[in-house]
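Data availability (excerpt). The following record was deposited with the supplementary files.
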Amino acid sequence: LSQLWIEYKDKHPDGYQYTQFCDYYHRWRGKLDYCMRQEHRGGEKAFLDYCDGIPFVNRTTGEFISTQLFVVVWGASNYTYADSTLSQKLPDWIGSNVRSFDYFGCVPHILVPDNLKSGVNEASYYEPELNPTYAEMADHYGCAVIPARPYKARDKAKVETGVLIAQRWILSVLRHRTFYSLDEQNAAIR
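Predicted structure:
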């Protein structure tokens, strides 16, 4: 810090003295938001999340049935997959994962999901407990599951951005259309 002050005094001879300079510097540094830059290798990670989808109409009852939009984003390329499901429950979660693998034609080395109950039984910073079915699916496809830390959205910033883009470019475009089935909705999403 003393070297910075010396350089500062060379440029501003009538500027702050060392103590005042240090005080202002520490105030400024306290306001900084530290963020580690993540580098992604091709094929290494895919980030997964859900958001609220567009409801569709049940033909027989006329009631609206809410949906969830499943989004996967690859770390290195930002290549994105989205589909609509009825819920975030285990069958829909596993089905969406498998459909995304089929869509991409490959499987990432690491899946980074949010800490939803279908994927993670117990969230933890150090030893998250995966849902056994989800762990078996990952094992079957030969990939690891490393959930994002609880309440750390930056761990999965790629998919948070992917969800935002999906909301803007998929959901906002389709919001005025009326759908009568999940398949019809997914065909429009694709």
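Summary of structural features: The longest strand covers residues 45-52.
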